[in-house]
């Protein structure tokens, strides 16, 4: 864990997520303990802070409750009666017992102390690095959550003083190395903010002197003298007087000789970024550096400088430039990079990227990069990247398959769309420890002065240039080139075009619509002027610094800002006509650049004919994206196609239905299950209006695919699925149609909660028979998956084994890894049930590894959930909770599975509360879940279990009330021989919980019935329940101690053999009860 006060107060868990540390006052207690590390905070101090006036009568108990809740957050896996190890009780109060490196303020203090030691030893370079590491711990204003609280005023003042001292110490170390010129801007701002701080002012003057600005340095000291005299009536201290004397004497020691290498920074005002980029390309290891900022701020220039450094160091450097617009094919920037690598490597690398699945494509990219050793990939203009390229970047940032890879990516932070793919990718990347992000800002006035001086311009114009250009390096360059200050950037472009040949604007605006790189052969066919004139115009544009020659017959704009200006100046109708002409030329030439053609047809829509072509090419581009496993891109294409349908001359409902079905498939593959449901509902409604049975069947089955069915733990959205499936089954589909077999199987599973389980198994078997007659492997595998899921609640273990083996066989034979994975997940559950621990653990490892490679959210989630169950059963509850929470975190925001997985993890919280004897909190949790999922039987059973716990733990009168409520609830479960519960008997904890409730309530008759249901499972796990342990309890309830002892010994043997340590305490308690 990482404790933080140098910014918003919080705790970061081991998985990198922020822990929920409770309401405001509880977080105050945590903040007080953090600030005091390692000393304890007295209880009275906490009370004084929490209640400034008179504390309430129960103040001590309230603080103790806050401490207790914080302990549960900080040590969720701590057993009951085990002393806390993090938030501990000490004489005089409470303390956080954590090492200094687990606390941001502790780390800052350690770096500061080490910096002081190095400075004293004369190691100024090392000292500066340590002081800067200390400063990096700040994430904003310290104690930001409590900025207005009176108790925090002294603490924030102390921390502000600490930070300012670090700034001074770091500057002093840099000045000892002669780095004053780079410090002038920052020190000037600090002096302005703290005008009476003498040491800071002296350091600022020293930096100015090192930068060759003696007069400015003396002026800074004089200003300090004036302020001291006028405001405080004091004379300057010895530091100021000594610095002034040494400057006037031009003391050589003030400007130490510094070794300057050829690699010294070339870009003004980017020293820190340049140093970090140099480290990134020079050192070994996996690194990603993100460069963000507005257009023209210098992102690409920094990346080019880093690329040159990397090449000088012998690294292979390749570029991937993103295409402005929606016309780039999937993985476009990566494809460019790989093409360059494959060409350098002598061939064939690209061929390996075809075929297989999405994870195989990702691994092929990683493998090809790894073959070239230490590679630098520069991705330029990431704000235009397609979603699939961003997903691949996330993968390559986390994989270990290419340890020599360094990525530098630039993007416009002004163009990051809230909720978009880039925002999601950036959120994932910046959490990684080997990812650094720099947000470039405009040059300050001092830096502009340096820029102008180095360019041979008048440095005295720095203030004027700062006002006019906001320090944007591109704008500064344009000013210097033109020799005058433009009012608008468009004036710059028009000024350069003024002396160019006629028709220049037509040619360059067409080139601007073609993209960053304009291919000459395409451009010649798009514009009207003859070839010779167009070529003359392009040459003239190169001389005017509007274009630059690229590789081959390609011209590239010198900056995207120039393109922006040209495009924005185009009248709307002319722009659309040019887009249409570009699309027609691309279509005539090859017709294979589907995404690009689709983009230009969409942008060029003026009439019905163009709308139809735009929809057609956009749909083909979506199919191409799907074939390349770029599912997010396919979603975007299909959404654009659907938006165009209303612009057709006549409504085409069949086309709309097909596009919605395609969209739902792409959304489901991308993990957008909520959106997929909405698309399917719309498609089903249209299919019914059309009377189209096949389309209705496809809509009905949309989210009943293999993975969704494998997530049998939760069936959220059943009503929507069941309604669609029933409507499709009632249609006129032929008996031999594969659709009917799939629909019947889906109905068997989806409706299993509302009918006798035997009837559902009969429907599943019927679906399998229909699938075998249809002769379609995919249909057969889907029906077998449903049959296996329903057999988990029965006793025909041989049939279930045969079904599992056939699912695996179909998956292997057809190369369908998803089907094989589902079969092996079923095999894992079967092995666990029979206590074959070794085989189960090997299968679980394969499931997790394969799910991580395939990268389907639902598959990763299910693998994590099975790992959570395994951890729980083997006696590792903290790991179980962590894995269960992981199973929900993999889903995108808004996906159905995210909420379901989160609720599943609450099961472990409930069991932990029971284990700690906190029955009231366990009951509250069960009721909270039932409010979200009304009537869900497993949670009703857990609620009943919590009621019995309260009945045993409280006094006679309240305990009797709890037991009475539990008895009434249990009577409903036991009605008609547990008929309502039988479908859930193998569900997780159900058998064990029912047996325990039955024993506590003393319901002998219900116990005998339940025993009969459990008897066929002797020697096995039923869900998470050891069947023999359940039956031992029930036999003892029935007064048959001999039979109870036999079952107890069988349960003990099973637990030892299978390693199911979660039941050790229950077995010991039952053994003790039997021996009494």
Which strand order spans the largest sheet, edge to edge or round the barrel? 6-7-8-5-9
Poorly predicted segments: 258-265, 344-351, 483-487, 706-716
How much helical structure, as a percent, in the residues?
55-70%
Give the structural class.
mainly alpha
- How many whole angstroms does the radius of gyration measure? 35 Å
The total strand number stands at 14
Q: How would you state the average pLDDT, rounded?
A: 83
Number of helices: 50
Strand content: 5-15%
Termini separation comes to: 46 Å
| Biggest pleated-sheet summary | 5 strands, parallel
- CATH class of the domain at 1-177 reads Mainly Alpha
Mind telling me the CATH superfamily name of the domain at 1-177? Winged helix-like DNA-binding domain superfamily/Winged helix DNA-binding domain
């Amino acid at each position: 864990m990482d404790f933080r006060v140098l910014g918003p107060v919080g705790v970061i868990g081991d998985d990198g997520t922020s822990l929920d540390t409770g309401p405001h006052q509880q977080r105050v207690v945590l903040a007080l303990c953090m600030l005091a590390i390692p000393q304890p905070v007295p209880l009275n101090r906490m009370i004084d802070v929490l209640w400034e006036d008179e504390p309430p009568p129960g103040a001590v108990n309230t603080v103790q409750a806050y401490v207790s809740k914080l302990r549960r957050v900080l040590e969720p896996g701590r057993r009951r009666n085990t002393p806390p190890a993090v938030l501990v009780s000490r004489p005089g109060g409470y303390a956080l017992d954590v090492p200094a490196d687990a606390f941001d303020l502790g780390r800052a203090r350690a770096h500061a102390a080490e910096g002081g030691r190095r400075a004293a030893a004369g190691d100024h370079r090392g000292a500066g690095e340590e002081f800067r590491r200390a400063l990096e711990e700040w994430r904003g204003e310290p104690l930001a959550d409590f900025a207005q609280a009176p108790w925090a005023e002294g603490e924030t003042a102390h921390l502000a003083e600490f930070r300012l001292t670090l700034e001074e110490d770091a500057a002093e170390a840099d000045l000892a190395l002669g780095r004053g010129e780079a410090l002038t801007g920052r020190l000037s701002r600090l002096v302005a903010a703290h005008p009476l701080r003498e040491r800071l002012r002296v350091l600022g003057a020293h930096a100015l002197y090192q930068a060759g600005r003696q007069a400015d340095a003396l002026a800074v000291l004089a200003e300090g003298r004036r302020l001291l005299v006028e405001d405080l009536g004091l004379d300057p201290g010895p530091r100021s007087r000594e610095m002034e004397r040494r400057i006037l004497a031009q003391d050589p020691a003030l400007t130490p000789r510094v070794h300057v290498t050829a690699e010294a920074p070339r870009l003004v005002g980017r020293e820190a970024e340049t140093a970090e980029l140099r480290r990134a390309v020079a050192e070994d290891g996996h690194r990603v550096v993100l460069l963000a900022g507005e257009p023209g701020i210098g992102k690409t220039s920094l990346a080019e400088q880093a690329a040159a450094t990397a090449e000088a160091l012998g690294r292979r450097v390749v570029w991937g430039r993103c295409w402005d617009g929606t016309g780039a094919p999937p993985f476009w920037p990566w494809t460019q990079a790989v093409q360059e690598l494959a060409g350098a490597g002598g061939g064939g690398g690209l061929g390996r990227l075809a075929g297989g699945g999405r994870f195989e494509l990702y691994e092929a990219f990683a493998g090809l990069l790894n073959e070239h050793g230490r590679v630098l990939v520069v991705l330029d203009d990431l704000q235009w990247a397609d979603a699939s390229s961003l997903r691949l970047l996330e993968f390559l940032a986390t994989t270990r398959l290419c340890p020599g890879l360094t990525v530098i990516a630039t993007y416009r932070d002004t163009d990051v769309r809230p909720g978009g793919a880039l925002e999601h990718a950036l959120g994932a990347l910046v959490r990684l420890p080997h990812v650094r992000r720099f947000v470039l800002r405009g040059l300050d006035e001092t830096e502009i002065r340096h820029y102008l001086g180095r360019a041979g311009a008048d440095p005295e114009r720095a203030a004027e240039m700062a006002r006019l250009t906001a320090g944007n390096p591109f704008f500064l360059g344009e000013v210097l080139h033109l020799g005058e200050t433009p009012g608008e950037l468009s004036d710059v472009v028009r000024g350069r075009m003024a002396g160019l040949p006629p028709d220049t604007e037509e040619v360059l605006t067409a080139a601007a619509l073609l993209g960053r790189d304009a291919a000459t052969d395409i451009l010649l066919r798009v514009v009207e002027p003859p070839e010779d004139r167009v070529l003359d115009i392009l040459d003239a544009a190169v001389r005017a610094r509007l274009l630059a020659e690229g590789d081959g017959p390609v011209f590239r704009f010198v900056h995207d800002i120039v393109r922006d200006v040209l495009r924005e100046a185009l009248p709307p109708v002319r722009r659309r006509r040019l887009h249409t002409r570009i699309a027609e030329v691309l279509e005539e030439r090859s017709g294979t650049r589907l995404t690009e053609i689709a983009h230009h047809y969409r942008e060029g829509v003026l009439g019905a004919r163009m709308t139809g072509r735009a929809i057609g090419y956009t749909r083909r581009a979506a199919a191409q994206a799907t074939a390349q496993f770029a599912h997010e891109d396919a979603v975007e294409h299909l959404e654009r196609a659907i938006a165009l349908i209303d612009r057709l001359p006549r409504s085409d409902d069949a086309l709309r239905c097909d596009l919605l079905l395609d969209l739902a498939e792409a959304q489901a593959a991308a993990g957008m299950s909520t959106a997929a449901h909405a698309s399917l509902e719309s498609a089903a409604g249209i299919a019914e209006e059309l009377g189209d049975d096949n389309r209705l069947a496809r809509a009905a089955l949309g989210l009943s695919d293999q993975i969704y069915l494998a997530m049998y733990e939760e069936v959220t959205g059943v009503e929507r699925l069941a309604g669609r499936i029933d409507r499709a089954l009632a249609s006129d589909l032929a008996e031999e149609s594969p659709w009917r077999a799939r629909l019947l199987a889906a109905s068997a599973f989806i409706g299993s909660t509302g009918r006798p389980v035997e009837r559902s198994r009969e429907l599943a078997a019927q679906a399998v028979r229909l699938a075998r007659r249809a002769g379609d492997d995919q249909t057969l595998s889907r029906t077998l998956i449903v049959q296996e899921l329903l057999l988990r609640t029965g006793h025909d273990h041989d049939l279930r084994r045969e079904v599992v083996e056939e699912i695996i066989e179909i998956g292997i034979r057809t190369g369908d890894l998803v089907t094989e994975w589902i079969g092996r997940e079923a095999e894992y559950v079967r092995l666990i049930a029979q206590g074959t621990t070794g085989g189960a653990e090997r299968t679980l490892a394969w499931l997790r590894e394969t799910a991580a490679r395939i990268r389907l959210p639902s598959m990763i989630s299910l693998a994590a959930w099975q790992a959570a169950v395994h951890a729980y059963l083997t006696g590792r509850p903290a790991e179980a909770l962590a894995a269960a929470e992981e199973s929900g975190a993999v889903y995108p925001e808004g996906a159905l599975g995210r909420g379901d997985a989160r609720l599943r993890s609450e099961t472990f919280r409930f069991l932990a509360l029971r284990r700690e004897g906190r029955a009231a909190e366990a009951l509250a949790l069960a009721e909270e879940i039932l409010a979200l999922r009304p009537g869900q039987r497993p949670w009703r059973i857990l609620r009943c279990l919590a009621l019995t716990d309260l009945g045993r733990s409280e006094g006679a009168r309240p305990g009797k009330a709890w037991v009475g409520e539990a008895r009434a609830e249990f009577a409903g479960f036991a009605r008609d021989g547990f008929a309502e519960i039988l479908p859930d008997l193998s569900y997780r904890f159900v058998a064990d919980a029912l047996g325990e409730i039955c024993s506590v309530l003393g319901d002998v008759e219900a116990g005998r019935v339940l025993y009969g249901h459990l008897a066929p499972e002797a020697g096995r796990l039923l869900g998470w329940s050891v069947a023999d342990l359940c039956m031992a309890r029930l036999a003892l309830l029935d007064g048959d101690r001999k039979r109870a002892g036999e079952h107890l010994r069988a349960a003990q043997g099973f637990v030892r053999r299978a390693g199911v340590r979660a039941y050790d305490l229950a077995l010991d308690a039952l053994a003790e009860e039997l021996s009494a």
